[in-house]
């Protein structure tokens, strides 16, 4: 790994809490290793701020290997920054130039209110899952044998691809309408593609879409920014599949 | 000692659990809503326990420090989950899984618990498939399996390199369903900061709302801790940044014994350390050892030239490569258990054959070129092309590898900026999992009545070394299939108790204790950051309580940590207020507990005058550098009782391990 260091300027959104007004603040940070991740760069800045007796920047993060979905950040106008198919924790400083000014903002959406600085409240996603993102099976372990129903590899793979959504919210943040369709459709698709999920498929899609609307997410106008910025490359096909599932459910519910 | 009664039921090992379960007390459905249960942590163990108990009808309150239960670090498990299904018809059985797990743990786990784990393993797969977990399948539509370390068969179920994610999302869907039905109340962004005991029983917790800073009292008839492991005591580990020991440690301070703290798993295949601002280490799944071959150059001058950037690994001829695992352990080859593989890597690097150009020259290769060739040819043949060109073979081989491990290869490339399809991965061992944890009996109950501990947070199933793909199995087994029975048995005594008041003096005392600690940190006004101390603690731990330990280093570590701890309380600076989101404060509270734990780990490692599994004492090895156990003197679980701030006063209790069904022997993977 050819390690070198760069000096950067940062414009970062600071907001005391949900009720206060925020603004962009400017920081300068030197000697950032290009092997550092973006969050390690923020750690370095925070260490500097604490040593200067200033308040460090709050940001969400946990696993730092791109899978927990906790990290977010709108970097230079893109969810999870300029690299493709990565979360912010897997974005590395080698993607930035020496002397560059980097803009860092929280996810912006009515359904994701800011809690502090770069931290937002994504509990709306949990409530959508609670409305129907499951198969209603008790946890007895006394179901049928796991191999009792063969599932074609192609379908199983598609279900898996939809299931790799990490629930980070980049799709909402990237969408001009702040729509959650990619997120919701990924779960609807995963379960609709598998025989275990098909029994409740109609009720599931109706309940999840209803909850999505109640949370204040916008409508989908098929611009596709969500799929471009999605760190797990969840496909737009899922939205099409959810629309079909929804129509089917509406027709048979009548 | 009567207090360390493991409560293993009578009877033959294959019948113990079934017979025992049949005679446990029950709580009738109409009584369950009158009983409150707290579950802390929402990983595989916590989410499955909360979902199951909620489904039964208990009033469940679940807590996690993350912004959603779906973020718990089980999500990051990669390779797979073991189950004795024998779908591959290669001779698997409950007994074999039991045997492999006991042997893999270097004969330091409790037989009865491990057998139960093997018994319920098949149910886990059935349950997960029913929930819609998309495991990998073969073209015939049936479930696929692969091999993991320490076994000679294929019993590992997987979903590409993100099995943990799929299993956790399955458990998350189960808990979400119960939250939606109002049977589980979820407290996100809450951290447990103390356990409350009333009349000797666990009756609640003190938690901090991480957004408002409010200190809350929550009461219950039982408290279940599923709060994961303590690998972050080393600062650098494969754990999530927030993973911590605090909940388990607070229970320890309130009377729960802490068992085998020195048993730490250093995972052989992680991306090597790159710099001083690094915040964590990234695992490359053990499943890669199915397809990758581990090597270093045979000649020291080649290793030097590689480190200096003058040679590339692909330029080293086959005969100049030392596939040291295949050389030393021909029977298991690259699939030896993790502790064995890690030590072998350290041995080569210490001898000067490391290939990474970092400060410590620590790194070895994990090479996929043989597998790309083999699978490329196989795929070509399967599609009727019996005379494939070299290019076709490589192209097909890469495609095969991508399908199996695509996300891992992508992750590796993003972190290192190197393409592992073209050049071997560089890897080195890193702290990954902790086998030690809160001591529990067969019921998964700690020495505090009513305080149950499950998943990585307890010590019970993996002995001195955990086999790959067994952590996911244990988490879900504990939560779905063990706790619902044993917790109900305990709660049967509480149907007349009524609600536990949070106005009791015990709650007040615990709350005041937490508030004092917080204001002490915020008013300390020292000069150094929390991370400064955490890194120094990690440094001591890695160097002296890491992959190889000796009496002198451990003795030094104990006093060095004691001194560091004192300095920490004097010199740490924690900015911000108590009544707001304050990540620095969260870290300070966690590091305070890691300091105490670190000392205890060193003490535990010092008292254990033997080498076993992940615990390698340099004084106890054979001529070939293999671990030397001392079964006569150390065939016990070391469970520590907290005796106050001075960890040197902590008292060791022993649970002797009786091997009735497996003959205890030297572990041999040759």
Automatic annotation (TrEMBL), chain A:
Domain named 4Fe-4S ferredoxin-type: which ranges?
156-186
Q: Which organism is it from?
A: Fluviicola chungangensis
User: What name goes with this protein?
Assistant: Succinate dehydrogenase/fumarate reductase iron-sulfur subunit
Gene3D superfamilies tied to this protein: 3.10.20.30, Alpha-helical ferredoxin (1.10.1060.10)
Q: Name the family the entry cites.
A: Belongs to the succinate dehydrogenase/fumarate reductase iron-sulfur protein family.
Under NCBIfam families, the record lists: PRK07570.1 (NF005746)
Q: InterPro entries attached here? A: 2Fe-2S_ferredoxin-like_sf, 2Fe2S_fd_BS, 4Fe4S_Fe-S-bd, Beta-grasp_dom_sf, Helical_ferredxn, SDH/FRD_Iron-Sulfur, Succ_DH/fum_Rdtase_N
Give GO MF terms, alphabetically: 2 iron, 2 sulfur cluster binding; electron transfer activity
Task: Tell me the GO BP annotations in alphabetical order.
Answer: aerobic respiration; respiratory electron transport chain
Cofactor(s) the record lists: [2Fe-2S] cluster; [3Fe-4S] cluster
Q: Which PROSITE patterns match?
A: 2FE2S_FER_1 (PS00197), 4FE4S_FER_2 (PS51379)
TrEMBL record, chain B:
What are the GO BP annotations of this UniProt entry? anaerobic respiration
The UniProt record lists the FAD-dependent oxidoreductase 2 FAD-binding domain at 36-472
Alphabetical keyword list: Cell membrane, Electron transport, FAD, Flavoprotein, Membrane, Oxidoreductase, Transport
What residues form the catalytic site here?
Answer: 338
Q: What is its EC number?
A: 1.3.5.1
**GO cellular component annotations, sorted alphabetically?**
plasma membrane
Topology relative to the lipid bilayer, per the entry, is: Peripheral membrane protein
| Source species, domain of life | Bacteria
- Record keyword Cytoplasm present: no
Domain Fumarate reductase/succinate dehydrogenase flavoprotein-like C-terminal residue range list? 534-669
Name a GO molecular-function annotation: flavin adenine dinucleotide binding
Predominant location of this chain? Answer: membrane
Cellular location of this protein?
Answer: Cell membrane
User: What does the record give as cofactor?
Assistant: FAD
Q: Which Gene3D superfamilies has this protein been placed in?
A: FAD/NAD(P)-binding domain, Fumarate reductase/succinate dehydrogenase flavoprotein-like, C-terminal domain, Succinate dehydrogenase/fumarate reductase flavoprotein, catalytic domain
Is Transcription regulation found in the keyword set? no
What is catalyzed by this enzyme?
a quinone + succinate = fumarate + a quinol
Under which main EC class is this enzyme filed?
oxidoreductase
Q: Which family does it belong to?
A: Belongs to the FAD-dependent oxidoreductase 2 family. FRD/SDH subfamily.
NCBIfam families assigned to the protein according to its UniProt record, in alphabetical order: PRK07573.1, sdhA_Bsu
**Protein name from the UniProt record:** succinate dehydrogenase
Instruction: Kindly list the organism's lineage.
Output: Bacteria, Pseudomonadati, Bacteroidota, Flavobacteriia, Flavobacteriales
């Amino acid at each position: 790994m050819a390690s070198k260091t760069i000096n950067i300027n940062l414009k970062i959104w600071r907001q005391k809490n949900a009720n206060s007004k925020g603004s962009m603040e400017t920081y300068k940070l030197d000697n950032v290793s290009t092997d550092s991740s973006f969050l390690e760069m923020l750690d370095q800045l925070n260490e500097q701020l604490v040593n200067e007796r200033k308040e460090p920047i709050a940001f969400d993060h946990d696993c730092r290997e791109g899978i927990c979905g906790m990290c977010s950040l709108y970097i230079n106008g893109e969810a999870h920054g300029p690299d493709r198919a990565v979360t912010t924790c897997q974005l590395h400083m080698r993607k930035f130039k020496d002397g560059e000014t980097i803009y860092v903002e929280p996810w912006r959406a009515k359904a994701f209110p800011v809690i502090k600085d770069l931290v937002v409240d994504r509990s709306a996603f949990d409530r959508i899952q609670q409305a129907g993102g499951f198969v209603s099976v008790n946890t007895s372990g006394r179901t049928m044998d796991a191999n009792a129903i063969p599932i074609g590899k192609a379908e199983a793979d598609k279900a898996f691809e939809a299931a790799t959504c990490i629930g980070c919210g980049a799709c909402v943040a990237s969408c001009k309408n702040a729509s959650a369709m990619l997120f919701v459709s990924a779960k609807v698709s995963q379960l609709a593609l598998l025989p275990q999920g098909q029994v409740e498929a109609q009720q599931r899609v109706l309940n999840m879409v209803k909850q999505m609307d109640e949370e204040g997410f916008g409508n989908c106008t098929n611009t596709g920014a969500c799929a471009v910025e999605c760190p797990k490359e969840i496909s737009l096909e899922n939205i099409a599949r959810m629309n079909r599932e929804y129509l089917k459910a509406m027709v048979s519910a009548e | 000692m009567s207090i360390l009664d493991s409560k293993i039921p009578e009877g033959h090992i294959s019948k113990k659990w079934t017979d025992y379960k049949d005679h446990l007390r029950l709580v009738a459905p109409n009584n369950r809503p009158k009983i409150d249960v707290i579950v802390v942590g929402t990983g595989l163990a916590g989410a499955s326990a909360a979902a199951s108990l909620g489904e039964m009808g208990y009033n469940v309150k679940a807590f996690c420090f993350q912004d959603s239960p779906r973020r718990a670090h089980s999500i990051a498990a990669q390779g797979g989950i073991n189950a004795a299904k024998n779908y591959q018809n290669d001779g698997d059985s409950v007994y074999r899984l039991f045997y492999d797990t006991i042997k893999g743990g270097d004969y330091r786990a409790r037989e009865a618990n491990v057998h139960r784990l093997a018994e319920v393993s098949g149910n886990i797969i059935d349950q997960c498939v029913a929930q819609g977990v998309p495991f990998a399948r073969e073209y015939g539509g049936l479930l696929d399996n692969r091999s993991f370390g320490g076994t000679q068969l294929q019993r590992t179920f997987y979903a590409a390199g993100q099995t943990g994610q799929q299993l956790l999302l399955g458990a998350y869907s189960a808990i979400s369903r119960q939250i939606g039905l109002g049977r589980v109340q979820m407290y996100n962004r809450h951290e447990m900061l103390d356990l409350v005991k009333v009349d000797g029983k666990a009756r609640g917790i003190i938690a901090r709302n991480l957004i408002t800073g409010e200190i809350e009292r929550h009461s219950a008839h039982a408290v279940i801790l599923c709060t994961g492991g303590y690998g972050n005591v080393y600062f650098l580990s494969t754990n999530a940044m927030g993973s911590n020991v605090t909940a388990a440690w607070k229970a320890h301070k309130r009377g729960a014994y802490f068992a085998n703290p020195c048993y730490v798993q250093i995972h052989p295949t992680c991306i090597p350390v790159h710099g001083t601002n690094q915040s964590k280490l990234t695992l490359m799944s053990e499943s890669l050892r199915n397809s990758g071959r581990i090597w270093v150059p045979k000649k020291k001058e080649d290793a030097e030239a590689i480190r200096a950037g003058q040679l590339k690994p692909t330029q080293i001829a086959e005969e100049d490569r030392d596939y040291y695992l295949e050389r030393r352990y021909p029977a298991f080859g690259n699939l030896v258990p993790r502790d064995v593989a890690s030590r072998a890597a350290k041995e080569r690097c210490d001898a000067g054959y490391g290939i990474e150009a970092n400060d410590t020259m620590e790194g070895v290769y994990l090479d996929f070129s043989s597998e790309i060739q083999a699978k490329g040819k196989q795929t070509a043949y399967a599609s009727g092309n019996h005379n494939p060109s070299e290019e076709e073979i490589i192209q097909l081989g890469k495609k095969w590898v991508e399908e199996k491990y695509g996300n891992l290869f992508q992750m590796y490339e993003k972190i290192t900026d190197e393409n592992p399809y073209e050049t071997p991965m560089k890897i080195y061992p890193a702290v990954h999992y902790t086998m030690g944890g809160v001591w529990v009996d067969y019921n998964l109950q700690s020495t505090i009545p009513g305080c149950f501990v499950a998943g990585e947070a307890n010590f019970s199933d993996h002995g001195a070394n955990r086999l790959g793909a067994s952590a996911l199995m244990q988490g879900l087994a504990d939560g779905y299939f063990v706790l619902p029975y044993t917790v109900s048995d305990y709660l049967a005594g509480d149907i007349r108790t009524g609600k536990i008041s949070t106005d009791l003096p015990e709650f007040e005392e615990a709350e005041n204790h937490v508030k004092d600690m917080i204001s002490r940190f915020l008013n300390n006004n020292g000069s150094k950051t929390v991370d400064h101390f955490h890194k120094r603690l990690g440094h001591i731990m890695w160097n002296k309580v890491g992959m190889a330990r000796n009496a002198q280093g451990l003795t030094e570590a104990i006093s060095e940590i004691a001194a560091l701890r004192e300095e920490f309380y004097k010199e740490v600076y924690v900015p911000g207020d108590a009544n707001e989101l304050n990540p620095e404060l969260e870290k300070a509270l966690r590091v305070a507990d890691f300091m105490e734990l670190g000392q205890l780990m060193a003490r535990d490692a010092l008292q254990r005058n033997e080498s076993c599994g992940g615990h390698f004492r340099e004084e106890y090895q054979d001529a070939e550098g293999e671990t030397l156990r001392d079964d006569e003197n150390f065939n016990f679980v070391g469970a520590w009782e907290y005796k106050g701030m001075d960890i040197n006063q902590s008292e060791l209790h022993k649970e002797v391990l009786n091997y009735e069904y497996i003959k205890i022997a030297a572990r041999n993977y040759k």
